[in-house]
Amino acid sequence: MIAAALHLARCYVARHRAQSLLLAGAFALVTALPLCLRVLGQAVETVMRARALSTPLVLGSRGSALDLMLKALYFKQQPLPSLPTRYLAEVRSTGLAAAIPIDARFHAQGAPIIGTEIEYFSFRHLRLAEGRMMTRLGDCVVGARLAQKRSLHPGSALFSSQEQVFDFAGVYPLKMRITGVLAPTGSADDEAVFVDLKTSRLISGAAHGHDDVAAQPESVLKQENGHTIANASVRMYQEVTDENLSSFHFHGDENEQPLSAILILPQDAKSEALLAGRYLKESLPVHLICPSEVFESLMSTLFQVERLLFLVLGITLAAALAVSALVFTLSFRLRGREFQTLSDLGISPAALRLTKALEIALVSGAGLLMAGGLTALAQLNAEAWVKWLLA
Amino acid sequence: MAGLLKPQRGSICLGSTDLTALSEAECRAFRLRQVGLVFQDFALLDYLTVGENILLPQRFTGLDCRHAAQDLAGHLEIGHLWQKPAAQISQGERQRVAIARALAHEPRFLFADEPTASLDAARRDRVIDLLFESAARTSACLVVVTHDAALLPRFPQYARVEDFAR
Known about the structure:
The complex is a heterodimer.
Chain A: H1 2-15, H2 17-53, E1 57-61, H3 65-74, E2 83-84, H4 86-94, E3 97-108, E4 111-116, H5 119-123, E5 128-131, E6 139-142, H6 144-149, E7 157-159, E8 175-182, E9 193-196, H7 197-204, E10 207-209, E11 220-224, E12 227-230, E13 248-250, E14 258-259, E15 261-266, H8 269-278, E16 286-289, H9 291-334, H10 336-345, H11 349-390
Chain B: E1 13-14, E2 17-18, H1 24-34, E3 35-38, H2 50-54, H3 56-61, H4 66-75, H5 91-103, E4 109-113, H6 121-137, E5 141-145, H7 161-165
Parallel strand pairs in B: 3-4, 4-5
Antiparallel strand pairs in B: 1-2
Helix pairs in contact in B: 5-6
């Protein structure tokens, strides 16, 4: 009886495969959605948590701790006030921790330009896949994904973007020489352009290079308070070369140059506690955050949102199941003559019920298989998708 | 007569079997094995092939009469349609598939409800010939319900409903 009922159910589903697939697909989607969401949520947590846990402390301008963490760790375009470079020297002078500057104010065609120091690479365990590290002003190394996406390689160039559309007379874009491509790490580093802090200042306009004014006296307009004011015939360099390298110079007080954040790596727990106490005062323009704590706070908020989302998805699933039940009920009602024929031929009510149940099971089973496939796909690619999303 | 309905009084006997004395399940089992039904609208399942329609009752009885059914289909000139979906065959072919389904398990009793309704005279005669021939081939007792008085001389026995009413 089971074989016969299964045969009938299979034939019906196969004959009406488009409708059955549609129904199974709808069932699969509403089932897979919460599962995939959970898988992706876990992957987000894993990927983000790893970076947060590996960064002991971050010093930044007082304000949103979350914005500071997102900017300093994940290079997100958060609206964050900068802090002066003197804090870098201040932290280092305490002898309690190593400090790595992060200047993430600029971009190169959408990719964040990270002005930092060479210690950042060893701290993040970044290694070169090809080329060499930057050695000269204007050099940069790029993350693996960015290089792959834009076909960048050592020897090619990348322009910094103007941060303000209407700043025509402001800072010129800098043509940066790519000296190396980093190996992939599956983090925000894969999508970034790394430059030396001095190059970052060059992009900001705090440093520049131009024709020798002394060699072009006709271009000098006037001398004022020890400064030479020249006309527009003096050529500003948009690219650093071996020939013009010596003409580049810095203006302003180096200690007052802005930074986005400072990564702080305390020597031990005691040093960490001492540093935390040092920047505890609310009156200070800067504050020290512990990324792992900020991350946990973010996660607890996300869990609440996730719970709400699951509730909504649960209601959607229940609605989808109710609609599916209605579809099957109507379908069986429309096929009343068919079941009456089977009954007239002598087939038992139990066999007829089994046939109907197997039809539902086949469609639901196909839906569950699809949902399983989608979830497995999400599981397999979750980390890559999340890294892509977070990059 | 096929045991689809239970009489309020009296009994229905097919051969030596009193259908009214059987339980619902026994009656169904008897019908499935011993009775062949040709419905007025043929009642084929469109999502099955011709072969699957003919073998449909046997799938539930477990009897293996595939070869006999294929022979019968050949005799009814629908053998070449065996793998074709029932939804894609003509009305005449559907009629023959319905007859083949009723006879495939070689029932002792064959009931045909208006098997020639809405057929022209030539087709009507062919279907009746087919029924007689098929019933004779499987030694089945053939009972036909019809409104067509022209068919009556073809049957050795017949009863008019009007006679019972009187």
